[in-house]
Amino acid sequence: MAISAAKVKELREMTGAGMMDCKKALIETEGNMEKAVDLLREKGLGKAAKKADRLASEGLVSVSITSDFKKATLSEINSETDFVAKNENFQKLAQYTTLHIQTNGFKSVDALMDSTLDGKNFKEYFNSQIATIGENLVVRRFATIEAGENGIVNGYLHSNGRVGVIIAAKCDSEKTAMASAEFIRNLCMHAAAMKPLYLSYESFDMDFVEKETVAMIAHIEKTNDEYRRLGKPLKKVPKYGSRIQLTDAIMAQAEEDIKAELRAQNKPEKIWDKIIPGQMDRFVADNTQLDQQYTLLGQFYVMDDKKTIAQVVAEKAAELGGSIELVEYVRFELGEGLEKKQEDFAAEVAAQIA
Question: Which tens digit of pLDDT belongs to each residue from 333-345?
Fold first, then answer.
């Protein structure tokens, strides 16, 4: 039978259950509101969903790595309070859920909720845990990355369970891949601390780069105004912010500018080849500050702050006699981006079940 959006909205407001659960309950009870309420309560959905308007911004991030370093899963499950996040039952739920996601390769929270765990619908199992623990719990997000042939994945979970990272690399051989496992974990530890948003500058959107470059230059110029007042050495003001902006033509011009400066300084041409590479590296460093801030490969390594992650990856590859290329990176920090929002139930109903 046809169930109106208004009736679904009414049942949701009465029980706090999800709209699709309300619609299914009304269909199953042939539109009988009282029976639909009872059905939702019998399934534990009413009690669990009544808590859904309470913001779940605490909880745990979990990491699961297979023993062969070929698959890694990262998840975030939220609770309302830090107290519940320390609860042993909640910790077991987070670990169990993460392993279930990894084993079955789910791509969405909906697929997870529709799955079967030990012969029981996962959503019913999860709601029973909400009822037992007594707080709204939410599987907010998860990600799984797999290593292909000659690949490796590893991860790191900070001791407080609030930050987790997984990274995948592609190597020239299984030998190189397995030998780099601890190194990849160290890179995950770096990313946990330094919070890069992207793997490399290649992930940048040009509009983002241009806007951030303008803001960065303005900030440096403002800082220089203060330094002038204090009589401090001024910071160099770059023209660019990312390697994505440094075209071949710009790099060629930079080299010509360096040569012109060396010529003006009367430096003998026979020693230019010893000076120019260092000057070019300095030019790139000055003009890739967004990469250093926002990208894993562009950041300076916390264990050797004279080298970028890209440089230490190349050095590790050379040490192992092979090649290592970082290909995937995921970092979750508990609660990032969460905010309580006011829902327009009528619009939500229209969008989801019209």
Answer: 998 877 544 444 4
Joined together, the tokens standing for residue 110 give: 């909906």
SS3 state of residue 45 = helix
Query: What is the spatial distance between Cα 289 and Cα 235, in angstroms, rounded to a whole number?
Result: 13
pLDDT reading at 19 higher than 80: yes
Q: How far apart are the first and last CA of the chain?
A: 14
Please report, as a single letter, which amino acid is at residue 198.
Y
Cβ(87)–Cβ(135) under 8 Å? no
pLDDT bin (cut points 50, 70, 90) of residue 319 is very high
Tell me the sheet residues that pair with 12.
none
Q: Determine the topology of domain 58-194 in CATH.
A: Tetrahydropterin Synthase; Chain A (3.30.479)
Is 1.10.8.10 the CATH number for 5-53+341-353? yes
Q: Are 98 and 104 in contact (CB under 8 A)?
A: no
User: Starting at the edge strand that comes first in sequence, how are the strands of the sheet with 163-171 ordered?
Assistant: 151-157, 163-171, 324-333
Rounded Cα distance between 307 and 311, Å, is 6
Structure tokens at 305: 């702050």
Domain with CATH 3.30.479.20 in the chain: 58-194
The per-residue pLDDT for range 51-103, each reduced to its tens digit, is 444 556 789 999 999 999 999 999 999 998 888 888 899 999 999 999 999 99
Buried b (16+ CB within 10 A) or exposed e, 277-286: eebeeebeee
